[in-house]
Amino acid sequence: MERLSFLNLLEIKTGDCITVTGGGGKTGFVFQLMKELTNCGIPSMITTTTKMWYPDNFSGKIILQDQIGLKNLMPAIKSCSELQLFVAAGGLADNKVSGLTPELVDDIYENLDGRILLVEGDGAAGKPSKIYRQGEPVIPKSTNRLVFIIGCEVWNQPLGHYVHRCPPELKDLLFDALWLKEKLMNYCSLIEHYKIDSSWLIINKAEGKAFLAASEMAKIAKPFFKQIFISSIKEAWIVNVCK
User: Which domain range does residue 114 map to?
Assistant: First the structure.
């Protein structure tokens, strides 16, 4: 399989609003996309509807709503001439930022003028998988491409080590084929009402021998997604394993 850059394989285009959900590489994914877009001279904006890490060492423009006020947010975004733009509601004490409402993200999208919008719409506390609560994930209506990421290091490992919000009574169960199927069925039921045409699964952290685990997971996930990719965001490559 040919390993390509994310931008080339995913065929990102002007006008896209890409929302990233799941765990195991969401933040790395949006910043990798932004890097590749920047290298091609294409402007993009990263934001979140939940929480995400503050972008330390970020070379672009950072706009926080609580610093400039809601009425000044849209003019500041529209006047930004830099290729890289990061927007959030405000800073938090744990070196994270709080998210914008999905309605505000939709308003921003309508005024971006060609800037590709990358949205982190989920939180997993740094773990490769999670158990969802009501109201999650938080997906703006303007989303036309939805990405679900899972880290393959979870495969056949105890849930308690790798699954965010794993209840104590399940911590020793393994993340096996049955658990993966149930998780994907649950996720698909949560996003069904959004009616998004393009929905992708990316199985991340497939460096070295981990590619075999990712391939096993991809076979099980095939009935749930039109397109499945295996990737290493760390090594900046991705392959399409199911069209």
Answer: 6-242
Q: What is the spatial distance between Cα 221 and Cα 205, in angstroms, rounded to a whole number? A: 17
Q: Describe the chain by its helix, strand, coil percentages, rounded to 5.
A: 35, 25, 40
Yes or no: say if 25 and 202 are a contact pair by the CB < 8 Å rule. Answer: yes
Residues of the chain with pLDDT under 50: none
Distance from C-alpha of 11 to C-alpha of 13, rounded to nearest angstrom: 6
* Tally of structural domains, the chain: 1
Q: What are the strands of the beta sheet with 96-98, ordered from one edge?
A: 51-53, 96-98, 90-91
Return the residue matching tokens 């003028």.
Answer: 113
Is 1 domain-assigned?
no
Let me know if residue 227 belongs to a domain: yes
B/e letters for 112-129, b = 16+ CB within 10 Å, e = fewer, are beebbbbbbbbbbeebbb
| Cα–Cα dist 205/159, whole Å | 17
The CATH number of residue 59's host domain is: 3.40.50
* Residue 95 neighbours by CB distance under 10 Å: 9
Cβ atoms of 238 and 4 closer than 8 Å = yes
Q: Quick check: pTM over 0.85?
A: yes
Q: Give the model confidence (pLDDT) of 57-66 as tens digits.
A: 899 999 999 9
